[in-house]
Amino acid sequence: MPRYYEDKPEGAACAGVKEDLGACLLQSDCVLQEGKSPRQCLKEGYCKALKYSFFECKRSMLDARSRFRGRKGY
């Protein structure tokens, strides 16, 4: 379900994962049908795979090995 943005320039690190996570949450049944906020839905466990990918991307920025290997791409 990842989206690739060819027209947009690369912005901040993990921007693609962050945008996909936001889109996933806004399209989830939790937000659309139950009327909850995206933050509440994220805490309830919606979009777990994208949440984990975003966490791993942010964590790789702090990893000292990433200076040599580069960030994990999305």
UniProtKB/TrEMBL annotation:
GO cellular-component term (any): mitochondrion
Domain of life of the native organism: Eukaryota
InterPro entries registered for this protein in UniProt: Cyt_c_oxidase_assmbl_Pet191
Keywords in alphabetical order: Disulfide bond
GO biological process, one term: spleen development
Pfam families, per database record: Pet191_N (PF10203)
Protein family (similarity comment): Belongs to the PET191 family.
Role this protein plays: Involved in an early step of the mitochondrial complex IV assembly process.
Protein name: Cytochrome c oxidase assembly factor 5
Organism: Oryctolagus cuniculus
